[in-house]
Amino acid sequence: MALSVLSFLLVLPGCTSLSGGAAQSRQSPSSAPQASGLSESPSSAASSAALCAWAGGEGGIFATTDGGETWQRQYSSSDAVVNGLSFSDSTHGWAAGSDGLLLSTTDGGVTWQDRSLGEQSAPYAWLVGVACVDAQHVWVVGEHTYATSDGGDSWMQRHSQENLAVAADEAGRVWVAGGTTLVRSSDGGATWADVYPDGCRATLLDVTTRGREVYVVSSTASPTPKPVMLASSNGGETWTTRTLATWGTADGVATSSTSHAWAISEGRTVTSRDGGGHWDIGWILGSRSASSDYCLNGIAFGDHLHGWAVGERVDAAGDLRGVVFATTDGGTTWRLQAVLPASMHLNTVTCCPFQDR
C-alpha cells in the first residue's frame, strides 16, 4: 500500500490533531495547507475512548480518535520537543518536554495550555516523562521528580535524582526509573524504597505498572548493548530478569492486562504473555530487511490487542522521519499508519487507560 505525501504527515491511509495549564491555550493554525485525511483545525473530544491515542516528539503532538485511520496535529512547536505524554481519561492529559515544556489539556487535546513547575522549573528545563493519575494528581520527571495534587496549580519536588521515566497508579504507588535508579513510593512520594534488583548491572530506561505488576526495560553496557527485561508480579519485592539474545537497547515498555507486556528495541518488538517469564522477539514489519531502517522510541497498549508504537526511520536521503505503527492482534502483526516529514521524529505515545475501555 502506498504512502501519500501530506502537508504535515505522510499517512496510511489518513491523518488527525491535538492541542494544551495555567495560562495560554494553543491550537494549530487553521490556515495551514490541507490534504486528504489531515485536518489542522481542532476536533471535538473523542466520542470513543477505545479509539484514541496521542503521539509526540519533534514537531508537536498528534492524535487519532478513530483507531489511527486518521491522525491530526493538535499542538505545534518549532523549538521544544515533546518527550512524554500521559492521559488519565479521554479528556485529561499532560505533555512534558525540552526547554521546560509542560502542557495540559481538559478536552482531549482540542486545546493545550502552557503550564509551569513554578519557581522550581527554571534550573530544570529538560523534562522527559509524565504520569497522569487523574485530573488532580500528576508526576513529572527530568533532572528531579515533581508531583502535583491540585491539577498543576502547585508542585513539590519529590525525588532529587535525575530520572528518565515515571509510572503511577490511583492507589498512590509511584515508580521512578533512570540509569541505575529504581525507586518505589507507596505514600505519594513522601518516602521512597530502593528496589533496584540485586546483581543487575543494566541501565534502566522505562517503567510501567498495572496493579502489582511492574515492568522495566533496560540495556547492558557498551560496546555491544543487549536489551534487559525486568518484571515483578509483587510490586517489586522480587524480580525476574531476562537478557535478550539480541543487540541494542530496549527503549519503551507497556502493559495493558494481567501478564501481558510489550517493549520495543531498535526496529523490533518484544512481547511477554506470562508476566515477563518469557519474551518473544519480532521485527516490527516481520523481517530484518523490512524493519532495519526503523528505530522505535515509544509503545502503548489500550488492551491486550490494540496498541501503537512510534519512532523514526531514515529515508533514502538520509533524513529522519517520525513513524506510527499500529496493531490489532496483540503485536503479532503491525501496520505502518503514518510517516512525518523530514527532520520530525516521535518520542512517545499514549492511549486512554483501562478504565475507559
Report what the structure shows.
This protein has about 350 residues and is mostly beta strands. The protein contains one helix and 31 strands. A hairpin with a 7-residue loop joins strand 25 and strand 26. The strands form seven sheets. Strands 1-2-30-29-28-27 form a six-stranded antiparallel β-sheet, with no helix packed on it. The protein has a domain of about 160 residues. The radius of gyration is 19 Å and the shape is globular.
Helix content: under 10%
Structural class: mainly beta
Q: Biggest sheet, in brief?
A: 6 strands, antiparallel
User: How many beta-strand segments?
Assistant: 31
Average of per-residue pLDDT values: 83
Shape: globular
* Helical segment count: 1
Question: How much of the sequence is in beta strands?
Answer: 35-45%
What separation lies between the terminal Cα atoms? 30 Å
> Order of strands side by side in the largest beta sheet?
1-2-30-29-28-27
What are the low-pLDDT stretches, counting only 5+ consecutive residues below 50?
1-8, 10-47
Q: What is the radius of gyration?
A: 19 Å
